[in-house]
Amino acid sequence: MMRIAIVDDEPEVCTAVRDYLIHILEKYWPKQATLVEVDQFETAEAMLDSFECCTYDLLLLDIRMPGLGGMAAAHRIREKSNDVGIIFLTSSEEYLMEGYRVFADGHFLKPVNMDEEAFRAALARVFERRVKAAQVLEVRHNGQPLEILFNKIYYIDLDGGRLHVVLAQGGICLARPYTYEWAVEQLSSDTRFLECYHRILVNMDKIERMTKENFVLMNGVELPISQRRRSSVRTAYMQYLLNQ
């Protein structure tokens, strides 16, 4: 089930956006369209109250509304989650740059049906992120099966000959048959992971900033960038950011 919220202080706009959204889903993602639940709100405050108990996968937010505007609501949502898709609806391009600060998936002038291809592309980014959020590394740890979400992994390296899967705080050490080569194979289809140094695989979504010689992660850890491959590693990271 995919839960979507549409927030606009004009009820007729909410309804028009909902109808167009369902139309696009049925046209390009017919299977997902049957598993979508759409809620409509006339205020951002009402949506945020609902979000507290029922997390949404996608928000379509009017930027200018009485009370709390869509941009302010988006900042509050980002304090809780980086996975929620956000698409802004507006009658002006005034807030376009600010939308990038909350990693919005799209920014559309009303009426939204003016650019079907761009709207489809925005939804595609949301679906891709949902797929990524569900991916897991399946291992056995201390004799028990364990699933590690890809998006919880900060980096992977070798620690004392063992595979070290590092999370925000701490990590998990795995003995054979879990090797670095095994980890690379498991993560090879996920574009987030980059080998930045010999046998260090970093999740680029967890990088806070890049210096000349290191990646500084969101948990404060600094990972070295290979001197021999510094140019290609830095280029790969910059290209990843541009494609987000």
Essential attributes:
244 residues, alpha/beta, five-stranded antiparallel sheet, elongated
Short summary of the structure?
The protein has 244 residues and is of the alpha/beta class. It contains eight helices and 15 strands.
What does this structure look like?
The structure is a single chain. Helices cover 36% and strands 30% of the residues. It is an alpha/beta fold and 244 residues long. It is elongated and about 60 Å long.
Strand percent estimate? 25-35%
Number of helices: 8
> How far from one another are the termini?
25 Å
Structural class: alpha/beta
Work out the number of β strands: 15
Strand order of the largest sheet: 2-1-3-4-5
Name the helicity range: 25-40%
Shape category = elongated
What's the average pLDDT? 90
Question: What are the segments in which pLDDT stays under 50 over at least 5 consecutive residues?
Answer: none
Evaluate the radius of gyration.
Answer: 20 Å
